[in-house]
Amino acid sequence: MTMLAAIPFASGFAIDALMHGLVGRLKRQGLRLGGVVQHNDAICDDRCMAMSLEDVASGRRFPISQDLGSGAAGCHLDATGLAAAAVAFSDALAGRVDLVIVNRFGKQEALGEGLRQEIAGTLLAGLPLLIAVRSDFLPAWREFAGDDWLELAPDAEAVERWALAATSVAA
């Protein structure tokens, strides 16, 4: 069984809600989780979202959006917040977790930055990892991950079944 699964999704799909629901379901199943999920908290004056990453183990949040002001066309990712969120992975690797969840492989990871090293470290540690990948980043994901990963439909029950099976193999 592969220890890496990705959920490809189309732009506009409510992937954050799916990932939050999965975290709750998997915790109720007794799994110890590490990694991060994204929150889009509020609309800024310039119509961007106030984004943060939540450490699924501790609940601690890390702001990752930078408000560029009323003249901006959108948000800008705050690399400092993203780097701070990386602590969720070091904590997961230092302790015992059953599964690591990553909100998404996105633009920063496609460029070789973001949480790319933390994702690789999780895989090198032999931990099962679940990640979401927006469709337009699938080519970069495939280049990064190679062929040894499972594509999962954005269906909570199917993903939960994979997570339970992967964590039982890893135990």
Terminal Cα separation, in Å? 13 Å
Largest sheet: 7 strands, mixed
Radius of gyration: 15 Å
- The tally of domains stands at 1
Q: Which regions have little confidence, pLDDT < 50, spanning 5+ residues? A: none
Order of helices and strands: EHEEEEEHHEHHEHEH
The CATH architecture assignment turns out to be 3-Layer(aba) Sandwich
Question: For this entry, what is the oligomeric state of its chains?
Answer: single chain
Number of strands: 9
Helix content: 25-40%
Explain what you see.
With 171 residues, this protein is an alpha/beta fold. It has a single domain, classed as Rossmann fold (3-Layer(aba) Sandwich), CATH 3.40.50. Helix content is 38%, strand content 27%. It contains 7 helices and 9 strands; from the N terminus they run βαβββββααβααβαβα. It has helices spanning 15-28, 79-85, 87-94, 107-110, 116-124, 138-145, 156-170, and strands spanning 4-9, 33-43, 49-55, 61-63, 65-66, 76-77, 99-105, 129-134, 150-151. Strands 4-3-2-7-8-1-9 form a 7-stranded mixed beta sheet, sandwiched between helices. The longest helix is centred in the last third of the chain and has 15 residues, at 156-170.
